[in-house]
Amino acid sequence: MHISSSEVDLMTKYRIPFNRPSLTGDELHYIADAIAQGHISGDGAFTKKCHALLKETLNAADILLTTSCTHALEIAALLLDIQPGDEFIVPSFTFVSTVNAFVLRGARPVFVDIRPDTLNLDEKLVEQAITHATRLIVPVHYAGVGCEMDVLMEIANTHNLNVVEDNAHGLFGSYKGKPLGTFGAMATQSFHETKNIVCGEGGALVINEPHYLERAEIIREKGTNRSRFLRGQVDKYTWVDIGSSYLPSDILAAFLYAQLEKREMIQKSRAQIWRHYIEELSDWATTYGIGLPTVPDDCEQPSHMFYLLMPSPEVRRHLKDHLDARGILAVSHYVPLHSSEMGRAYGGYEGQCPVTERVSECLLRLPFFTDMSAEEQNVVISAIHEFEVGSTHGADRQSSEHFLLGSR
Fold this sequence. Notes:
single chain, alpha/beta, 7-stranded mixed beta sheet, 15 helices, disordered C terminus
């Protein structure tokens, strides 16, 4: 395998990366097993094992693995028959896939601001964004902390809207005791290398309303009824609907199944890392008016990420540079979609989502990965404690604290 000089520079520059995919023990063994079974294309033995495990764990009607969370969202848009002229409500503070899947069908995104505490879609602003063209709400469980799903589902039911949860961050999280991803008609998961449970690239569509399943299988199988054929329900399969090739290789499913089997170990390790950040940084954050992740009492979060909300963009930049100089990679997150080039084409404008804009400028994500050692984490923590917030902090402190606390 050839590694470019720029990749070598990047790997050697950071002694503590932002993310590092980890093995749990059986990934390579299961991949070899999949090859030995002679079926490494889609819907092999390990895909079926992943489906069964996730379906039972989430208590969902059904699960379909996909090549990415993006593709799971695209299937959802097709299942809901999204048409040109339809509108959907979505937070501006999210990854572009959340929007693209529905825009590809001709729909128009209506961007809504986020809460200043959980950084989730602000449920108080949703109803006023609904028009005669609104078809669905797409909440994103940021950092795996659940949105206010009771309120959102009530709004959706009142206005006869669908709900598709983007749960890329939130597998094994819950809201009021119910797993995230099981509230809306369907939800999507991600197994990208930056997530808790990984297979490099991959995703899943969670189907909570059974009447969507048969068509979902058809769309996922290139628009054919091949799944029915394989079950012996028809004597041949043919083209019956629109669709594409959304099936992941069983090699990826084999890797994923090994991770899913060790989900409790993975979650325990990540929870310990998350708690250690909180314990060691809380006093420092309070002293300097810096925001830490907020987890409401009725939410169980899967310890997907840890971030700091700095008092200003300047202070964030200085801290990032401070860590960078010590070989520690900390990163920002989403650029607001409403202010992007495409977002402006759909009517977005500066100042439309003020909390989103402020968070985007001030949020810094710290290194966080499953096999992060205590020594590595303590290097990060020590470097943060050494950081001098600087004279610019005082001018921003009052507005920063008001912003971070918000008014609920």
